[in-house]
Amino acid sequence: MTHTARRIGRTLALVLPVVLVLSGTLAVTRVPWSTSGSETQILTASSEEVNVRAKSRAPQDVLRDKLLLELQEKDPAVALTHLQREVERRPSLTEHCVSIARALGRAAVGHYGPTRAQKFSRPVCDTSFASGVAHQAG
User: Fold this and answer.
1) pTM for this structure?
2) pLDDT higher than threshold 70 for residue 3
3) Could you give the CA distance from residue 44 to residue 66 in angstroms, rounded to a whole number?
4) pLDDT tens column, 106-119
5) Where are the alpha helices (H) located in 30-127, listed in sequence order?
6) Residue 135 near residue 102, CB atoms below 8 Å
7) Cβ partners under 8 Å of residue 92, min gap 6
8) In this structure, how many other beta carbons lie within 10 angstroms of the beta carbon of residue 75?
C-alpha cells in the first residue's frame, strides 16, 4: 500500500504543477475586458506602443548620410570638402574616410552621371571618390 501511495504522490508532484501553470496561463490570456457581446480580447506580452530606444548610430554612418544628402542638395565638391574637414577635426573617422568617399563617388555617378561626377574628383582619402566613381560607372 505504501509503495502505491508513494507512486501516486510522485506522479501528482510532477503533473500537478504543470497542470496548474498551464491552466493559470490560459486563464490569464483570455480575459473578457468588455461586456459588449461575447467578444474576448487576448492579452499579449507585448504592446504596439512600446517605447523602444533606437539604436545609436555610429559617427561614420551619421557623417556618410549627412554628406550624401549634401551631395544631392549641393554638389560632390562641397561634400568632399566637408569630409576632409571632419576627418581633420575628428581623427577617429580616418579609418572610415575611404569607404565614405567611395560611397560619395557612387552616389555622384547616380546623380550626375560618370563623366560629370569624375570632374569633382580630388585627392581626399587617397582618391577614393574617384575609385567609387570608376566602380559605379564600370
Assistant:
1) 0.59
2) yes
3) 40
4) 999 999 999 998 88
5) 59-73, 76-89, 97-112, 114-118
6) yes
7) 59
8) 17
Indicate the pLDDT class of residue 48, thresholds 50, 70 and 90. Answer: low
Distance CA 121, CA 56 (A): 32
* Residues 87, 93 contacting (CB under 8 angstroms): yes
Of the candidates 105, 106, 109, 61, the residue with the CA atom closest to the CA atom of residue 80: 105
Residues 3 and 42: their CA atoms lie apart, in Å, by: 45
Give the closest residue to 109 by CA, choosing from 127, 134, 91, 82: 134
Phi–psi pair at 41, nearest 5 degrees: -100, 150
pLDDT digits (tens, 9 = 90+) for 52-89: 556 788 999 999 999 999 999 998 999 999 999 999 99
- C-alpha cell at position 17: 504543477
pLDDT at 10 over 90: no
**Are 71 and 79 a contacting pair, CB within 8 Å?**
yes
Q: What is the per-residue burial (b if ≥16 Cβ within 10 Å, else e) of 41-55?
A: eeeeeeeeeeeeeee
Three cell numbers written together for 46: 507585448
